[in-house]
Design brief:
Length: 520
């Protein structure tokens, strides 16, 4: 096995029919700088959601292999943390260059395993690449503070030190961006890392790990292990792991938050969402409709910042007619096809779940303005496709509203005033993002102040902050104190040490005082 061959195989499966049926490649772990095949007897298929072909298989990594990965990370830590920050930054500088070089390979892998369109897959890589670029400035980001003469001849300074071994647990929906939210910030600030990619689409993580090694990351600084619940629990329980970054569903996220916190670890847990867009009667017509269609159906609705619910203030009828017209014109196809606007959802089970939630909406009284459930895509009849679907007259008690659907389904609600619309949004348990579409500064300002969501868009449908800010979901969409990337991300992966030093000619013979030292 060589990692390059692995990457080649997975990147050609979208077009090479013969590879789909023969022995799928087994995805190795990366332990201590070597890509090694697991000795496990249990493997899970990685399935192309547009074709059902088996792209590769991931192992349910054995406990001793996991221990070897943590031990490699632990051994690599002392010398890596003492490596000059400029050297660590240069690895990131090289990594960002290599990611650009291999952008097409990464995107093809993502489309093959995850299903999103190639253009969207490039966006997935690019939004992660921006975090790598940001990590190139770690020297400034990690600076401590200094205050001289806090007392006579005494100075105090604080330094931000790495924690040790950190771990990342990833979801399926952004196979490149989310690993890149994690390990570049962690390792550039001096930590070593164990990454657990999603079992559904591990390929991008493997290519990124290969690139990180090529960029000069020393052996053991980044390790990758595959598996599902058991390995996640092992990460939560391991005493050598100091911090866990998690992105995924609430079920897994709250379990991990509780279990890992109980062992004293830091945890940042980004979870599910139900993002609302409030449309005011004065909103710019065309721009708003385009934004709603793009943010509702892009990536087949499988974005944690997808706008899955619209609240129209006033009469929704004209808006809804136009929405249906535009949604109907979207092309559903395999992500590798150049005309595709949206690809399949990740699995057969995901499709069944999406369809069940649509049906439950209908049964509880919502009007199905557009039904994408029976779509068949020529040439990809086996794919998990769901076409754009629009439900109108949705109310807060409906299951389709209470659950995160994570599919190309837009729910339409109605409110009589901005106040009422804001109350609807605030009653929802999630708080990842919310947007308003309006030409009124007064309405926008009220929305920004009163809305209970961590990321607010004003005429911006998916307000995901760039890496110099942080990703700041709130309420049930986040557990922890320090968010991903930005200043908070650096703070998450570092702890403060505060040093007080005294350099003065000590006055002789002043005696010993046992009173609390003060500088009065
Ligand atoms: P998921 O929770 O099923 O899986 C995420 C990770 O957790 C995987 O690596 C998986 O192996 C592991 N896992 C799953 N169930 C587990 C369990 N019971 N015990 C231990 N480990 C478990 O999530 P997913 O389906 O891959 O991703 C979709 C979800 O992620 C959506 O809810 C979406 O909103 C959310 N998401 C959130 C953000 C954000 O930043 N808030 C970003 C992307 C995705």
């Amino acid at each position: 096995f060589t990692p390059q061959i692995f990457a080649l195989n997975i990147s050609t499966t979208a077009t090479d029919q013969s590879l789909r049926h023969s022995d799928p490649p087994r995805v190795p772990n990366l332990i201590g700088g070597s890509f090694v095949n697991s000795q496990s007897s249990e493997f899970i298929d990685v399935i192309n959601p547009a074709t059902q072909q088996v792209v590769s298989q991931i192992p349910l990594t054995k406990n001793e292999e996991f221990q070897a990965a943590v031990s490699a990370a632990k051994q690599a830590f002392p010398s890596w943390r003492n490596t000059p920050i400029t050297t660590r930054q240069r690895v990131m500088l090289k990594l960002q260059q290599l990611i650009r070089r291999d952008m097409d390979k990464l995107a093809m892998n993502i489309t093959t395993e995850q299903g999103k369109t190639l253009k969207d897959a490039q966006g997935d890589v690019f939004r992660g690449l921006e975090v790598v670029e940001h990590a190139c400035g770690m020297a400034s980001l990690q600076m401590g503070e200094f205050l001289s003469n806090v007392s006579h001849g005494v100075d105090t300074y604080s330094v931000r030190e790495p924690l040790g071994v950190c771990a990342g647990i990833c979801p399926f929906n952004f196979p490149a961006m989310i690993p890149l939210w994690m390990f570049p910030v962690a390792v550039t600030s001096g930590n070593t890392f164990v990454l657990k990619p999603s079992e559904k689409d591990p390929g991008a993580s493997m290519i990124l790990a290969e690139l990180a090694m090529e960029a000069g990351l020393p052996s053991g600084v980044l390790n990758v292990v595959h598996g599902t619940n058991d390995i996640v629990n092992a990460i939560c329980d391991d005493e050598d792991i100091k911090a866990i970054s998690f992105v995924g569903s609430n079920t897994a996220g709250m379990h991990i938050y509780a279990r890992a916190s109980a062992t004293g670890k830091r945890v940042q847990s980004n979870m599910g969402a139900k993002n609302h867009g409030i449309v005011m009667p004065d909103a710019s017509h065309d721009a708003t409709l385009n934004a709603l269609v793009a943010a509702g159906f892009g990536a087949a609705g499988q974005r944690c910042m997808a706008l899955s619910t619209v609240v129209f203030v006033g009469d929704p009828k004209e808006w809804e007619i136009e929405l249906v017209k535009r949604a109907k014109s979207l092309k559903v196809n395999a992500g590798t096809e150049p005309d595709a606007d949206l690809g399949p959802v990740i699995s057969k089970q995901a499709k069944e779940r999406v369809c069940r939630l649509i049906q439950s909406g209908v049964e509880s009284g919502a009007r199905l303005l557009l039904d994408g459930r029976d779509i068949v895509v020529p040439g990809y009849e086996q794919g998990n496709f769901v076409g754009p679907t629009i439900l109108s007259g949705v109310t807060e008690d409906m299951e389709c509203y209470k659950e995160e659907i994570f599919g190309p389904v837009l729910l339409c609600m109605q409110a009589d005033s901005l106040e009422e619309a804001i109350k609807i949004v605030n009653r929802n348990k999630y708080g990842n993002g919310a947007a308003i579409f309006t030409s009124s500064g007064v309405a926008a300002r009220k929305f920004q102040t009163d809305i209970e969501a961590g990321q607010v868009g004003i005429n911006v449908p998916i307000p995901v902050p760039l890496p110099f800010f942080s990703f700041t979901g709130s309420k049930a969409s986040f557990a922890g104190d320090l968010n991903f990337y930005g200043k908070a991300g650096v703070n998450f992966y570092t702890q403060i040490k505060t040093v007080t030093q005294q350099w003065k000619d000590l006055p002789g013979g002043s005696g010993v005082s046992l009173a609390m030292p003060t500088s009065q």
